[in-house]
Amino acid sequence: MGMFHVASADEIKEGRTTDIYFTRAKEVLEKKGIKKRVVAEVITSSLPKGYPWGVLGGIEEVAGLFEGSNVDVYTMPEGSIFHPWEPVVRLEGEYTLFAELETPLLGLLCQASGIATKAARLKKAAGDKSILSFGVRRMHPAISPMIDRAAYIGGMDGFSGVAAEKLIGKSASGTMPHALIIAVGDQITAWRLYDEVIDKAVLRIPLVDTYYDEKAEAIMAADAIKGLYGVRLDTPGSRRGDMKRIVQEVRWELDIRGYKDVKILVSGGVDEDGIRELDKVDGFGIGTSISNAKTIDFAMDIIEMEGKPVAKRGKMGGKKEVYRCIACLNSEIVYKKEITQCPKCRGKMKALLEPLVKGGRIVAELSNVEKIRDYVLEQLQKVNLNGL
Q1: Which fold has domain 9-115+294-380?
Q2: Burial of 242 (0-12, 13-18, 19+ CB in 10 A)
Q3: Which of 269, 200, 190 has the alpha carbon at shortest distance from 228?
Q4: Is the per-residue pLDDT at 157 higher than 90?
């Protein structure tokens, strides 16, 4: 296993991260010579906190999981907005070929989609304000690139984790830790040394709550550093008090001294409600509420066997399709039926489940991260936090 408690890529693809009951099911079927071609679909019956929609993540990794296997995989495009009961993934093949891949498949989808969904909701709440993902320190470092990627495609404007730079193709963002100021000995010297050493392409955003009142340190920073972009407030919750009032005071004091262009950024325990409340803040760094986002409770169920509909109780049998209106995002789940016109707005309908892997080959054109993010942002313009 090595020093870190993580599975290798080979272990994941070979089904060695599965739940034991799938291994036992496969053993029974193989020893008794039971080979059935099935269709299985991945859906969720509900979303965290009653959210009306989610954002699908993890599809690129699903492609890697099934590459080389004799299982056909169909999925919604990564970044698609989905709703409860809509199939987001469909598998077709002999069941024993993917029985042990159900656990890693769901793990890839559930966590990435949970993070992307939360990021999209935060971005929707923030609107045009800058919003960055700062949450990788709250989770296992082995998955930090996945966390930042999922957050970015969900709508975050940037991310702090260095490990995600290569995956996303963009430089990490961030300011400075309190530790720098403490190690140097005082705020002004630390800010000036940072300004002297760090590449000028990096925005100058000093942290202004280490020793003194946020208002006092914000004024000190603005006086000390030329070309200041903004100041960051990261006061711990135990010392925060009325954060809205603190921000108002900082904004006032900067403005009356001629620093109206200096932006205020806030991090530390911010969520959707905080974004809406802190109306005078120009940008946010969001940590725990992104990386610790509630996972989407996807489940996989066999819904067709040897060409005939089947289903366990509580699920609907038969191979289904999801049609989405390009104009209004209205969705329709259908069985052996094609819908070309939206029943709500008469717009054009499109089938969402597209081939991802066929005959062991990845056949879909996997979009780059920027295109996925653009797709998410385009859809977000057509929804609100409480529904379509």
Answers
A1: nicotinate phosphoribosyltransferase (3.20.140)
A2: exposed
A3: 200
A4: yes
Q: How many CA atoms lie within 13 A of 202 on its CB side?
A: 15
* Mean pLDDT of all residues in 366-386: 95
- Is residue 271 a contact partner of residue 238, using CB atoms and an 8 Å limit? no
Look at residue 23 in the predicted model and tell me its pLDDT.
Answer: 97
The pTM for the full model equals 0.95
Domain spans of the chain, in order of start: 9-115+294-380, 174-286
Tell me which residue of 209, 204, 249, 256 sits closest to 230, measured CA to CA: 204
3-state secondary structure labels for all residues of the chain: CCCCCCCCHHHHHCCCCCCHHHHHHHHHHHHCCCCCEEEEEEECCCCHHHCCCEECCCHHHHHHHHCCCCCEEEECCCCCEECCCCCCEEEEEEHHHCHHHHHHHHHHHHHHHHHHHHHHHHHHHHCCCEEEECCHHHCCHHHHHHHHHHHHHCCCCEECCHHHHHHHCCCCCCCCCHHHHHHHCCHHHHHHHHHHHCCCCCCCCCECCCCCCHHHHHHHHHHHCCCCCEEEECCCHHHHCCHHHHHHHHHHHHHHCCCCCCEEEEECCCCHHHHHHCCCCCEEEECHHHHCCCCCCCEEEEEEECCEECCCCCCCCCCEEEEEECCCCCEEEEECCCCCECCCCCCEEEECCEEEEECCEECCCCCCHHHHHHHHHHHHCCCECCEC
CATH of domain 174-286: 3.20.20.70
Q: Kindly state the tokens that stand for 187.
A: 């705020």
- Given a cut of 90, whether residue 179 has pLDDT beyond it is yes
pLDDT of 1 higher than 70: no
Torsion of CA 164, 170, 174, 180, to 10 degrees: 70
Q: How far apart are CA 238 and CA 249, in angstroms?
A: 19
Alpha-carbon gap, residue 204 to 302, rounded angstroms: 54
